[in-house]
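I am going through a labmate's work and have reached the protein record below. What it holds is a sequence and that sequence's fold in token form. Please read both lines and tell me whether the tokens look consistent with the sequence. Do not assume that whoever made the record got everything right. Thanks in advance; the entry in question is below.
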Amino acid sequence: MTLRDVPALVTGGSGFIGGALAGWLAGEGARVTALVRRRGAHPGLEAPNVMQREGEFTDPATAQRACAGQAFVLHAAATVGQDLAEALAVNARGTATLAAAARAAGCRQFVHLSTLSVYDFQAEREMFDEEAPLRELGRAYAHSPAASPHYGVAKAEAERAVQAEAAHGLPVTIFRLGAVLGVHPTSVWVTKVPAKVRAGQVPLRGDGADIMPMTHVANVVRAVALALGNPVAVGRAYNLVDAEVAWRDFIGEMRSWFPDARPAPVIPLEKVTRADRFIARCPAERVRRELGYAPVRSYAQGMAEAREWWRSR
């Protein structure tokens, strides 16, 4: 579909994924509103057809003003904080507020950027497709693939809030992302994790065979592009995974970027339980089958970009 002069709202506009989505929309000629905490020279928001609006999407009045007149809402904002109350306030209740505002404004589609961390990986399953059980508030989970133990639960609650609005007529599409590669000042896997790997602060659990489900921010943009305005995508959730990499190989490649990298600490295998490990798979056949998706950037390309970024520094 053509996006020229189509109004679209992107939350988390100053962030990694939000900035990439806003930049793509602007390149397609859309009239983009990027919701940011503070205006600034944020990557992806440089085009003249991008308007930065300061505010918190968790605030009902701000959400209503931001959604008014928008054809599409792309919700990429979230927190990975360590506090459960904050995670629920931002990721769950904030998303509910934004989705309600989008429905009231008559938006044509609400695209929610979620995470594979929503799945209940303690369930006895080898595969977690889009129909697998999600985490539930009030339960304890031994393992979280995210940096915060509360991120997956709060994002699962966010999905339930979005689905509740969908039941009242909001056209919704959900993408559950693997670890996202791509160079950006706030990119976890390209800026923050390699720094910790270099300092010897990222351990291997046993033999390091844990699975890393990966994608690239360019692939996220591609998937959203295929879903936007596509009736097939309405009411659907999609895993977005383009590579599965053993944790030892992922960490090992990062260590090779740094001559001064310290050894990775090893947690002995006998001290690691199954619940502590991430060994399930999250297939992404649905997005390929229904939307005709294919990745535009490979895992090897993403890691090469990250390596060159670090070398340039």
The longest helix spans residues 84-104. The first strand starts at residue 7 and ends at 11.
